[in-house]
Design a protein that fits this description.
Rossmann fold, Methylamine Dehydrogenase, Chain H, 4 domains, 13 helices, 68 strands, flat, ThsB__TIR-like_domain, WD40/YVTN_repeat-like_dom_sf, TIR_dom, WD40 repeat-domain-containing protein-like protein, WD repeat
Length: 919
């Protein structure tokens, strides 16, 4: 066995630039100078990323090269370093490739506490310990306490205490004891003095060499240019890291600035962390926070064109906002003498109606922001609701006197007598889209429908809410009515039959104060006293994603923009918030047709066709563009279809089932190719990259290879797993096959020899359900019943970093995006999670779809779509187009930092407009 190659560096210093920007260079200098032989420039070569790193497009590969070329890792531990993702990556890389025995911790600030009982660091008491160090050491590691150094002004080897600490740290690097090293240092100094005395006589000779100075000057100038470029790159790297951290701190409080900081960080230095910051910022539900009201904000409404937002509140004012810039338009509209409870735009967007506790309704010219005529008294008590008819000619109002009134907008005079029937305060009023029906809701727990022309009630009241009805809204097609109440519930009603539709929408933990439909009618938004906003899929009546959280008190009103993309909310915390409603929801309706759970999904190589297989024993093909079924289901299996896979040319589809068969289908004709290939339960199938071989994993603990042309087995089954094999996957070059099973392992096989490559990959503690290769073949991902996704280095067969944990009972599927940068996982908690492969961090919240298990996921070949197979008998397609160019997406979503913000976060740096054409 050959010896290890020589290391370029004795040590690599891992540190937080913000915390140890002065200490780290001093320590590096001390290590390099202590016991330096007179003939050598340094005693040790020590890497520190502001001195050892050349300007490079691939920053992390350069760091990895330095780590791999170092013998020791000097970890400067501090609270800032403990929170640094960059330091964490360096630690994880070191442990994965070298273990923990060659880590030399130096505590510069904070606390470093070992818990003997737990056999690990005390997670609460240790502020200087990076999370990547937990669970790494079998016993307490020796560390050097240099917290005293932050009080020192001169950290050089002339400082006895600093010199002593450097000697203790350097001794193992020299392979000496500390005493031996200090003795060696004294000897080297004496020898240097003797040599220095002898050099005086030779100075005359050196004078003759002065003529070469010009050549040296040229070289020095070139080196200076390199140093300047290196310094600029290191400065940008430090600024990028700073902005990434600041962006993450603002995710909830100021999502717009968070997006802009992430974008700027990536432009300064396109690191993995900066790219992740962009991806995470893209998925933030919050778009912006609009501040201006000085008391509760009670009302919010978008103009019909979506360009303007109107808000009203307890401060007696109405404010108009430009949605694109999130800036106020002019001064507040003043006129009401009490809180403004409601605002509503006319259908043409030219007029704004407002209602107040001062018992009046006012109309405003939106263009001039001036009142139209005098206010008119609508109620003997406060005005709770106003609504324009679809033609804009009529205004309906309701209030505390239990009545509804209709008004002629042009004359501002009442039309007929008030509508009576409610026995308590009327909180909500809305016209149907065709203008024929008026719906109202009140404190009497009732919803009433009225004929707008005759002003008479339609049938009996709609009952079901057990507390007051707070809001009513018609769907855009007028077929559905949504209502909310103080009973925490949302109900959907068939407007024609006046009967409830399906189950209640539950999830809010306090009274629901407002509901609003999206313009396409697919989504319902709700706001509640529980401080949250929820989005609901109207078709399935299930919640979409996690609640939108940011308000610190009750949410009084919600409204959708005309393009369906933005929800506005008004809260008693005096803020108005804008939320991204397009995130976390599928593109289009679910693919329906299966009559049982859908277990498998796959895109064809050209992305035009989607295949699904399910518990109804069928395989179905779908048009990727229209999402409509292609022909009739493919039948032949006599039990559930567990897996589907397209051949590389897209002409053949393979399916594996619980009926112990693997079947091949001609995609063009949708007909079976020959007889089934019989064997054990076929839980997974995959084609080799050349399309000649098919692998299947089954219930008899084996893996089988089949010749596609003849449909015959190739050699004997691959034996090694000790339980059923759930997944098979070929590497992109076809040389390796990865498999996983109920024996908790992942195995790699040499396809040519059909022999295992090394030992099984162990670490999962439950059944491993899925495996996938990265597009470059360097990484294998695995998903298991232990709620984790793991990444493995194919060459070393070692885990890459810590497992990625999922809040679920089990994770059933993983898939890499075509560019290898993202990973998707599917879990038993009706969710799909996206991950950033480089940082191994989740990208945003989960993509919630069905109220059931997600069994499988697959990326489209262009990476713009993600398909999921769901146990609610559907498949869903998610639009990931925005992720293809995160920089452009963020530019479109909010643009660059304005100059004032730039100067705040990057003082002294020349301003850059990073998104031309976007303010």
């Amino acid at each position: 066995m050959g010896s290890d190659p020589p290391k370029r560096y004795a040590a690599f210093i891992s540190y937080s630039h913000s915390a140890e920007g002065a200490f780290a260079p001093a320590l590096q200098e001390g290590l390099q100078r202590l016991a330096k032989p007179w003939r050598r420039q340094r005693a040790l070569e020590v890497f520190r990323d502001q001195t050892g790193l050349a300007v490079s497009a691939g920053l992390w590969p350069s760091i990895c090269a330095a780590l791999d070329g170092s013998s020791w890792l000097v970890l400067l531990a501090s609270p800032q370093a403990a929170q640094s993702a960059w330091v964490g990556k360096e630690i994880e890389r070191w442990i994965a490739t070298k273990g923990s025995q060659t880590i030399l911790p130096v505590v510069t600030d904070g606390t470093w506490v070992w818990d003997e009982r737990a056999g690990d660091f005390d997670r609460e008491a240790s502020t200087a310990v990076h999370p990547a160090l937990h669970g790494v050491f079998a016993a307490e590691p020796r560390h050097l306490d240099m917290t005293w150094a932050k009080q020192e002004t001169h950290l050089t080897l002339r400082n006895p205490r600093f010199r002593d600490a450097v000697a203790e740290l350097a001794a193992p690097m020299h392979g000496l004891t500390k005493d031996e090293l200090e003795g060696d240092d004294v000897r080297q100094q004496r020898r240097t003095i003797r040599l220095a005395r002898g050099t005086v006589a030779g100075l005359a000779v050196l004078t003759l060499a002065a003529s070469s100075a010009a050549v040296v000057a040229v070289n020095t100038a070139e080196q200076a240019g390199v140093q300047r470029r290196r310094a600029e790159a290191q400065k940008n790297l430090a600024l990028s890291r700073q902005l990434v951290a600041q962006s993450e701190q603002l995710w909830s409080a100021d999502p717009l600035t968070a997006r802009r900081l992430a974008l700027t960080a990536y432009r300064l230095a396109p690191t993995d962390d900066a790219r992740y910051s962009m991806l995470a910022a893209m998925t933030l539900s919050g778009r912006a926070v609009l501040n201006g009201h000085t008391d509760y904000v009670l009302a919010v409404a978008f103009s019909p064109d979506g360009r303007t937002l109107a808000t009203g509140g307890n401060d007696k004012t109405i404010r108009l906002w430009e949605v694109a810039t999130r800036r106020p338009i002019g001064e507040p509209l003043i006129g009401h003498t009490a809180e403004v409870n409601v605002v509503a735009f006319s259908p043409d967007g030219r007029t704004l109606a407002t209602g107040s506790r001062d018992r009046t309704v006012r109309l405003w010219d939106v263009a001039t922001q001036r009142p139209i005529g005098d206010a008119f008294t609508s109620s003997a008590d406060e005005v709770n609701a106003v609504a324009f008819s679809p033609d804009g000619h009529t205004l309906a109002t309701s209030g505390g006197d239990n009545m509804i009134r209709l008004w002629d907008v042009a004359s501002r005079r009442p039309i007929g007598k008030p509508l009576t029937g409610h026995t308590a305060e009327v909180n909500a009023v809305v016209f149907s889209p065709d203008g024929r029906t008026l719906a109202t809701g009140g404190d009497d727990n009732m919803i009433r429908l009225w004929d707008a022309a005759s002003r008479r009630p339609i049938g009996k009241p709609l009952t079901g809410h057990t507390k007051k009805v707070t809001s009513v809204a018609f769907s855009p097609d007028g077929r559905t009515l949504a209502t909310s109440g103080g009973d925490n519930m949302i109900r959907l009603w068939d407007a024609a039959s006046r009967r409830p539709i399906g189950k209640l929408l539950t999830g809010h933990t306090a009274g629901v104060l407002s509901v609003a439909f999206s313009a396409d009618g697919r989504t319902l938004a709700s706001g509640s006293l529980d401080r949250s906003i929820r989005l609901w899929d109207v078709a399935t009546r299930s919640s979409i994603g996690e609640p939108l959280v940011g308000h610190t008190d009750a949410v009084y009103a919600v409204a959708f923009s005309a393009d369906n993309r933005t929800v506005a909310s008004a809260g008693s915390d005096t803020s108005v918030r804008l939320w991204d409603a397009s995130a976390h929801r599928p593109a289009g309706e679910p693919l329906t047709g299966h009559t049982d759970a859908v277990y498998a999904v796959a895109f064809s190589p050209d992305g035009r066709t989607l295949a699904t297989g399910g518990g109804d024993k069928t395989v179905r093909l779908w048009d990727g563009a229209t999402r409509r079924p292609i022909g009739k289901p493919l039948t032949g299996h006599t039990d559930a279809v567990e897996s589907v896979a397209f051949s590389p040319d897209g002409r053949t589809l393979a399916s594996g089932g619980d009926d112990h068969t693997v079947r091949l289908w001609e995609v063009a004709t949708r007909r079976p190719i020959g007889e089934p290939m019989n064997g054990p339960l076929a839980l997974s199938v995959d084609f080799s990259p050349d399309g000649r071989t098919l692998a299947s994993g089954g219930g008899d603990h084996t893996v089988r290879l089949w010749e596609v042309a003849t449909r015959r087995p190739i050699g004997e089954p691959l034996i090694g797993h000790t339980a059923e094999v759930n997944a098979v996957a070929f590497s992109p070059d076809g040389r390796i096959l990865a498999t996983s099973g109920a024996d908790y392992t992942v195995r790699l096989w040499d396809v040519a020899t059909r022999r295992p490559i090394g030992e099984p990959l162990t670490g999962h503690t439950e059944t491993v359900w899925s495996v996938a290769f990265s597009p470059d073949g360097h990484i294998v991902a695995s998903a298991a019943g232990d709620n984790t996704v793991r990444l493995w280095d194919v060459t070393t067969r070692r885990p890459i970093g810590n497992p990625m944990s999922v809040f679920s009972v089990w994770v059933g599927s993983v898939a890499f995006s075509p560019d290898g940068r993202m990973l998707a996982s599917a879990s038993s908690t009706d969710a799909v999670q996206l991950w950033d492969v480089a940082t191994r961090r989740p990208i945003g919240e989960v993509l919630n779809g069905p109220a059931d298990v997600v069994g499988s996921v697959a990326f489209s070949p262009d990476g713009r779509m993600l398909a999921s197979a769901n146990w609610d008998n559907t498949a869903r397609i998610w639009d990931l187009t925005a992720f293809s160019n995160p920089f452009k997406t963020l530019c479109d979503a909010g643009g660059s930092l304005p100059s004032a913000e730039w100067n705040r976060y990057l003082p002294g740096e020349p301003y850059q407009q990073l998104c031309p054409g976007v303010s």
